[in-house]
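Q: Could you write out the predicted structure for this multi-component system? I'm mainly interested in how the pieces pack against one another.
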Amino acid sequence: QKEVEQNSGPLSVPEGAIASLNCTYSDRGSQSFFWYRQYSGKSPELIMSIYSNGDKEDGRFTAQLNKASQYVSLLIRDSQPSDSATYLCAVAGGYQKVTFGIGTKLQVIP
Amino acid sequence: EAGVAQSPRYKIIEKRQSVAFWCNPISGHATLYWYQQILGQGPKLLIQFQNNGVVDDSQLPKDRFSAERLKGVDSTLKIQPAKLEDSAVYLCASSLVRGKSYEQYFGPGTRLTVT
């Protein structure tokens, strides 16, 4: 069983729509959860971090965490073509170990 | 604040040759990570340092890969001898550990091609 699972996509959404990206994890002891954006040929860039159950909003981005279901998601409102990238879910468990998912490729269609 | 620096940005070598990568983390960041990212996959942790000490190197192929962190700051990752399957982007990241937060900041990466 993979420790952090994401659908590789591509997820295609029209410009202006809400993009919903999902991630599940296997370690119930996980404490910290991150979303990174990675443009083609570039390195990952941290866009959201969440540590408690519920929602965390930052501009057009909302991260949602449900520890009981071992599920974390990222919503992107008013999607723009510049949001087209691969979104990596990362989960930190014990001993500071951070595990990344495979990433979901998002395509925003103008 | 300067970001994570890495060099070289690109490297092409033949199989069985050796190669070394260098990383300078963000000033004050105690934790340093080396990742291998193969095209189409997420970053895979190779080794994690906390100051000078190794926290996790369970996925480092120790027969050919080695890494060190000098005086708790700069780090080098070496591959000797390289294999074709080592072709990947090698990412260095650093973090300032605060409580449960392990927010990582990545350098630009080194793209390695082994022919």
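A: Regarding packing and overall arrangement: The mean pLDDT of chain A is 93.
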